[in-house]
Fold this sequence. Notes:
Largest sheet: 4 strands, antiparallel
Strand content: 25-35%
Oligomer: single chain
Low-confidence stretches: none
Helix content: under 10%
Amino acid sequence: MPTLDSPIPLPNNQGQTDPAVRFLSRGNDYALFLTPDSAVFKLRAAVVRIKLAGANSHAKIEGAEAL
């Protein structure tokens, strides 16, 4: 898993998973999926979904810069 001082790579979803997911990251012990209104963490056997109250589910999200 990346350390706090190293960025987590978040490549665009290009058909690797559900189309609602815009960016994703996978490692040995985790998966992170980002949608316009939520973040989903899979940590070993647990799944945590953080839904942003009032967020626009149709918002355009894009990366700021390439790693």
